[in-house]
Amino acid sequence: MMFRMLAIVAGLGLALAAPAEAQTPRKGGTIRMTAPYGSSFTSLDIHTTQRAQDEIYAKGLHRSLYIWDSAEGKPIPELAKEAVVSGGGLVYTFKLRDDAYFHNGRKMTADDLIWSYNRIMDGTKAYPGARYVRIIEGAAAVEKGQAKEISGLKKIDDFTVEMKLTEKVDPAFYLFTALTSIYPADEAAKDGFIQHPIGLGPFKFVEHVPGSRIVLERWDRFYKPGKPYADKVIVSIMGEAAARDVAFRNKEIDTSVLGPAQYVAYQADPNLKGTIAEVAEVFTRYMGMNPAFKPFADKRVRQAINYAIDTDLIISKLVKGKAYRATGWLPLTSTAYDKAMKPYPFDPAKAKQLLADAGYPSGFEFEWTTSQNESWGLPIVSAVIPMLDKVGIKVKVKQVEAAVLSEVVRSGDYQAFIYSQQTGPDPQAALKCFHSSTPQSACNYMNFKNADLDKILDEAGQSDDSAKRIQLLQKANALLYEEAPVWFFNYNKAVMAVQPWLHGVQLNATELTHQNVEDLWVDETSPAK
Prior knowledge:
Elements: E1 30-35, H1 52-61, E2 66-69, E3 74-77, E4 80-86, E5 91-96, H2 110-120, H3 130-133, H4 139-143, E6 153-157, E7 160-164, H5 185-188, E8 203-209, E9 213-218, E10 232-237, H6 241-249, E11 255-257, H7 260-268, E12 276-289, H8 299-308, H9 311-317, E13 323-325, H10 348-357, E14 365-370, H11 378-389, E15 394-399, H12 402-411, E16 416-422, H13 427-431, H14 451-462, H15 466-483, E17 486-498, E18 502-503, E19 521-522
Parallel strand pairs: 1-10, 14-15, 14-16
Antiparallel strand pairs: 2-3, 4-5, 5-7, 6-7, 8-9, 9-10, 11-17, 12-16, 12-17, 13-17, 18-19
């Protein structure tokens, strides 16, 4: 199957659909996916973890109010059949599906949706999905312990919910990820739910072998007629790119995220180059700096770090071109991407001058927390260390496992970290991570506070004019560039090898590994019939 395709489309068309398949989808068989971002899953409670690793299995197990449609390049209604907008764009009345059954056989109702969103806003738990549910009026009050239930959610009947928003945003861009999955209210409160989760997705939970795999099997009462096609989905943990490479070549797995070295090798191999699927993802890779660590409280120091690093050289030589240079926070697939913005140039002399102006003529030392990730982890840090050393900045490396890093980032227990963060598909949601009202645990990982930025984002949130909103968001992005709370590294080019017998793979710009698995199918040439 010749699969190679690159989707870099401006505007909302973030991804292109895979080529149309001539064959009729085949029923049965096993889909063998990989979880490539670490040596474990964080939790079987998807509300608790923002890791892309965990959402791979959650796409089969759970469902949210909306779902991402890669062909359309936008979220579309999923558990909602329709939405009627009123109240000047602030009130959405959702008609829910009346044919969605949880894996215990009970039908989903409005009570489950309201219970799930209230759970996510429990401020004592700091669920990452709170950043999305917070757009509902009264959600922040629940988070702060000032109310028990979200006032902006109202049950009209068993299959109708009214939702009042705080801003004029499209809730579709906030309520499509697995972080906002709808749980069965009566079951999710029980202790055993975490060991044996129950969802609304096309596949039900069978087993979790920690450090190894999650196995799901077909749910026969799934609400989409004739789907899912496959009988079983196995998501195997394979954090090492070399291990995935061997397994893919041995036909033991159907999908394999390629690291930089494999990307180069597969392009050069006539037997493998046709298996490559590519998409420009809405992710920004960066080094975050803690303003509570004195040197990083000074904007000039943060700018100096951006000048001191030869970012283009790292992308070319280490990342092997499997990325796009970051010119700001918003990626080039964002609707608010500003083509006029230029990245920080490599200028060590300018870096030294800024450090001297900030009172650090001899530099300083900091601790940099990183995972082993080859595209944005330890290898990148190792390449940056001598560049910073040349301007007087010394680095102590603190290496942690990927699951630990995500908790370090959310807790603020670092001087600096290196990470990959989703920065789309909605630019307003991405930039809201820097609003002073957004908690660190949600996505304001640098605990950034800037009154001018807050004002711009608040104005964008109340604007009826889409063109004006884009202008305001570009202004906010430019302010972040100037403030430099991060080292702007790159925007990800996601690359995945797909076996020729696996069909229906979607070029998902929000995360290539997150597939709507009910649409995947394997033909009779699959070794896992």
